[in-house]
Amino acid sequence: MKFLGLNAIFHDPAAALVVDGEVVAAAEEERFSRRKHGKRPVPFSAWELPEQAAAWCLARAGLKPEDLDGVAYSYDPALVRPGQRGLDERWEDLRTTYARRAPNFLATALPGLDPAQVRYVPHHVAHAASAGLAAPYRDSAVLVCDGRGEAVSHLAGRYADGELTVLAAQELPHSLGLMYEEVTEHLGFMRSSDEYKVMAMASYGEPRFLGELRELIRATGDGGFRVEPVDWAGYAKRLGRGEPWSEDHADLAASVQRRLEEVLLDLARWLHERTGERRLTMAGGVALNCVANTRLLAEGPFEELWVQPAAGDAGTALGGALHLAQAAGEPAAPMPGADLGRGWTDEELAAWLDAARVPYERPADLAAAVAAELAADRIVAWFQGRSEYGPRALGRRSLMAHPGRAANTERLNDVKGREQFRPIAPMVLAERAADIFERGPIPSPYMLFVHDVRPEWRDRIPAVVHVDGTARIQTVDRTGDPLLARMLQEFEVRTGLPVVVNTSLNTAGRPMVDDPRDALECFGSAPVDLLVLGPYLIHRGKVFAS
After folding, report:
1. Domain annotation covers residue 231
2. Where is the Carbamoyltransferase C-terminal domain (predicted)?
3. Tens of pLDDT along 62-112?
4. Given a cut of 70, is residue 279 above it in pLDDT?
5. Minimal CA–CA distance to 319: which of 304, 303, 335?
6. How many CB atoms lie within 10 A of CB 508?
7. Residue 93, exposed/middle/buried by CB under 10 A (0-12, 13-18, 19+)?
8. Cβ-count burial of 244 within 10 angstroms (0-12 exposed, 13-18 middle, 19+ buried)?
């Protein structure tokens, strides 16, 4: 059976296709439209659908809309409670109206689709399915935490043989995700977009406001929590975008980050007591907080923790499709990886380069050629295979550099136009990771945890060591990604370092590069030395030779 899942209601619109229980394709609309996050998370954008992502998913499988056995829409307007605290009373009815009419909107966007095939999947159930049904095991406790769904902001439950039992859900207006969004905005960043910047800033501060926040943000002992109104200005003045931040701002970020971790630990302990499960799966935007994830695994009661790589709202497209498949009696297969987006053949990539009249070469040993460029301290744009589903660059659409040059942190942040306090991440061969990193799960293929860099390595790979001595690593498996693994091996031969800098292939405010045109445009506008497009190398000096 064939099920298409769609996320459209808040932000990060996306589509995913599941056929006979297998994940076939998943992509975010931003990669096609080139609008960061696809759209802003406001009620009057709820009509915007992931039309291009959905059309591509179907084309990938050679399907037409009429071939589908069901379409999951990851929001159920019947669950919205008008007048409930925490909703935007001025506009919430508009969001609900759009959701109710979604079947007809979708039939217009996907000609041939029967509106009766569209089924509403509650937002947090879709999140839960994206974790519990996509994980590499059938039974687990599941924890979802984000800004909000229809009427709640969290779900705690259990998957047993693919069936979900909901044990707790926190009603609005109490929301850990919205709380983190509020402080994100207060610190001068964009809410529902830049929360990871607060997490990075937290490492520069001390949690000196923690005592007061413990009174306002707390677990309730029944699987839920309370978030009382917080006067953020009482801790640090509100920042405008781009304004310099002070010690107060860093301390506020550190205090909020620490309190979030503590409450998540309380929720996890309650869930473990109720389920007795050894494994926890997580989704929802809060699950992208890799610092909290690491503490949850290190100090929490669960032996294993698996986080959906597309844990934000984009992942509900996949979760909705998996939920319908499970309900139809087709047990979901584990998610095969995050490389679920678009890809091109070598011949197609060459045609792009020929059309652009760009000089290029095809080396006999691509891995060795790229490793040599990195060893010479050149910045490399790496475009390989199918693009990633979710916000992390995982060696498909990446910017790479030498980790042994401390100046490369500032250099790459300049290339991308990012704030200088933000860290850049390392990729490392899975079998070498434990030699260099500790306190964190290994393997860690999705960049969803932080690890301490062993003291003897901190001066050797300074570009990827954050101010607190940690790094958000991606481990590379030789079997799953032989080309990337060989490049890392060749780099170690030349430098003695089995680590390479890996950050997303994009510039600030723009989505990650997805197709060859995006790659060429990024290469042309940013000071990158080398573009690796499939098996081809494009040298900046040759393209822009006078």
Report:
1. yes
2. 371-540
3. 999 999 999 999 999 999 988 787 777 778 889 999 999 999 999 999 999
4. yes
5. 335
6. 11
7. middle
8. exposed
Pick the catalytic residue: 11, 127, 154, 186? 11
Q: Is residue 335 part of a domain?
A: no
Q: Is 119 helix (H, G, I), strand (E, B) or coil?
A: strand
CA-CA distance, 379 to 503, in Å (whole number)? 11
Residues 109 and 160 occupy one common structural domain: no
In percent, the amount of the chain with pLDDT more than 70 equals 100
Q: Which two tokens stand for residue 413?
A: 């942040």
Shared domain for 525 and 395, answered yes or no, is: yes
Phi, psi for residue 164 in degrees, rounded to 5: -95, 130
**Which tokens hold the place of 475?**
């481990």
Calpha distance 67→114 (Å, rounded): 10
What pLDDT does 231 receive? 97
State the SS3 of 432-498.
HHHHHEECCCCCCCCCCCCEEECHHHHCCCHHHCCCCCEECCEEECCCCCHHHHHHHHHHHHHHCCC
For residue 165, being part of any structural domain is answered with: yes
Give which of 32, 62, 10 is closest to 341, Cα–Cα: 32
The average confidence (pLDDT) of the chain is: 96
Q: Are 191 and 182 in contact, with CB atoms under 8 Å apart?
A: yes
CATH number at residue 9: 3.30.420.40
480: number of Cβ within 10 Å: 16
Judge whether 401 and 462 are in contact, CB under 8 Å. Answer: no
CA distance 378 to 540: 11
Count how many Cα atoms sit within 13 Å of the Cα of residue 221 in the half-sphere of its side chain: 0
Domain total for the chain?
3
> Which residue bears the tokens 């499709």?
321
Percent of the chain with pLDDT over 90: 94
C-alpha radius of gyration, the chain, whole number: 23
For 468, the token pair is 């607190």
Alpha-carbon torsion angle 498, 499, 505, 506, nearest 10:
-160
DSSP state of 66: G
Query: How many secondary structure helices (H) and strands (E) does the chain include?
Result: 19, 22
Query: 424: number of CA atoms within 13 Å, CB side?
Result: 34
H or E element that contains 15: strand 14-19
pLDDT for 44 equals: 80
Which amino acid does the sequence have at 467? V
Which residues partner with 19 through β-bridges?
A: 2, 22
Give the structural domain span for 401. Answer: 342-544
- Is 124 noted as a catalytic residue in this protein? no
Q: What per-residue confidence (pLDDT) applies to 42?
A: 85
